[in-house]
Design a protein that fits this description.
By secondary structure, the chain is α+β, with helices and mostly antiparallel strands. The relative contact order is 0.25. It is elongated. Strand 4 and strand 5 (159-160) form a beta hairpin. Helix content is 31%, strand content 29%. The chain has five helices and five strands.
Length: 163
């Protein structure tokens, strides 16, 4: 086993994937913020913002889908712990250029492990929902720039990944 494998917490001494034991970690308030975007035609964005998309209120459905996804992350990501989430907020807003819809998710818990994956999953599923609900109108959409922006709590404390 090489040095990189030894440092990966999801691998055991033999290099096999396993769920990390967080039983001895302190319970702390933890939060994570993730962001992403859907690039789309300006006409599509205007339809979406006006509520005139054929499939209905895209923003409301995407918001609920993101919240549901955060809550179900351990069912989608095999080695994630099931967490009692205390807060999930998914927000979307148009970029000033008029050709992107920006997505942000905030997830919080009071527990022994972080909620980074839940925030990233919320953004991803919200973006996929937007894509699904708009694909009949816009074949050029692109999902991208999904990333963790910041996290807090636990041993590493507050960490910002972008300004």
């Amino acid at each position: 086993m090489n040095d990189e494998q030894r440092e990966l917490s999801h691998l055991d001494a033999q290099g096999r994937a396993h769920m990390v034991d967080v039983g001895e970690k302190a319970h702390t308030q933890r939060s994570a913020v993730a962001r992403g975007e859907v690039q789309l035609q300006s006409a599509t964005l205007q339809l979406l913002l006006s509520g005139a998309m054929p499939k209905g209120d895209v923003l409301a459905v995407a918001r609920v889908a993101g919240i549901m996804a955060a809550k179900r992350t351990p069912e989608l990501i095999p080695l994630c712990h099931a967490l009692l989430l205390t807060k999930v907020v998914v927000e979307m807003q148009p970029d000033p250029t008029g050709e992107r819809l920006l997505i942000e998710a905030l997830v919080q818990t009071h527990g022994q492990t972080g909620v980074e994956m839940e925030a990233l999953t919320a953004v991803s599923v919200a973006a996929l929902t937007i894509y699904d609900m708009c694909k009949a109108v816009d074949k050029t959409m692109r999902i991208g720039e999904i990333r963790l922006v910041r996290k807090s709590g636990g041993k590493s404390g507050d960490v910002a990944y972008e300004a």
